[in-house]
Structure prediction request, 259 residues.
Amino acid sequence: MDDKNPASMHEQLDAESRERYARQILLPEVGETGQKELFTKKVLIVGAGGLGTPCSLYLAGAGVGEIDLVDSDVVALSNLPRQVMYRMDDIGKPKALLLAERLMAANPGVKVNPIVKRLDKDNIKEVVQGHDVVAACLDNLATRYILNEACVEAGIPMVEAAVSGFTGMVTVVMPGKGPCYQCLFPKRSTASKKPSSPPPIAGPAPGIAGALEASEVLKLLLNIGEPLVGRMLLFDLKMGQFQIVTASRREDCEICGGM
Ligand SMILES: [Zn+2]
Prediction:
């Protein structure tokens, strides 16, 4: 963090911060106190693709103090229709580095740490620890399960989203308080490292789901409203429908059962 970095909890917001976050500070749920609180928070975003791009843009924009951004991929031509932050001259370059650079260019008061690595069972605990909230912005099942397990074990809330076609789902895993990802989707044996063929995706679907994830992260960081714990928000853009489905923990869940 540099000199422009926002004031600590005990100091007044500086003039630039007051101007930058003016509309957000006007929210009674945020105010100057909430804004200063956001500056102290640390979020992990796993994935810098269709979900991670909008999610990270809104969190950096909101002034979350520190963001760790993990992704092992490089930008491909087929990403551009939905990962609209990236440009033609980004093709072949690591997404985590590009996105971190752009987030900090948009808001130099936010510290963004790009981590170019693929998460696996051996490194995930170390990457997850020390964060207030984790946003899962993933495109594969295997990583969703190991990230869920690491977050439950560390007691860190995780915001989860997935999209397919014109549809999407967003939910929050709050360890010990609601169902974990494996309670919701227990068929671990079907998890493969990557989908065998890329699923169809309408560009706006991850844009909407990623923005919803950012909103859930901010709610958790500031203790605002009702996070999607034990609830899945499902949307179908083709039908123009949003709905909530409730879900419970499974007592026999091998990840969170007995907590
Ligand atoms: Zn569970």
